[in-house]
Amino acid sequence: MIPGSVSKLSEVTVASATAITAKADIVNVTGNTQINTINPGLGTAVSQFLILNPVTAGGVTLGTSGNILQGVAAVQNRPVFMVWSKSAQKWLINSGV
Fold first, then answer.
1. Mean pLDDT of the chain, nearest integer
2. Alpha helix stretches (DSSP H) within 1-97
């Protein structure tokens, strides 16, 4: 997304796993396996934005043993807004979750 211009968000669906790859702006997650690592779609050298949306009943847990700074239990159909920090090499989660 580019500030000040019209942007279109891309969207994919992936199955939950201990590690997933974010190949779109919006990632719909199926399943309840805890996610500990989210590989940034643009690589680790640039900061980026991600919307993670658990679509399975029971939601999904985001753990901290990988590259997620603060873990959270994400609820079904309640998107988690995340930012990749290139300096920390971790995903930062919106505190409103």
1. 92
2. none
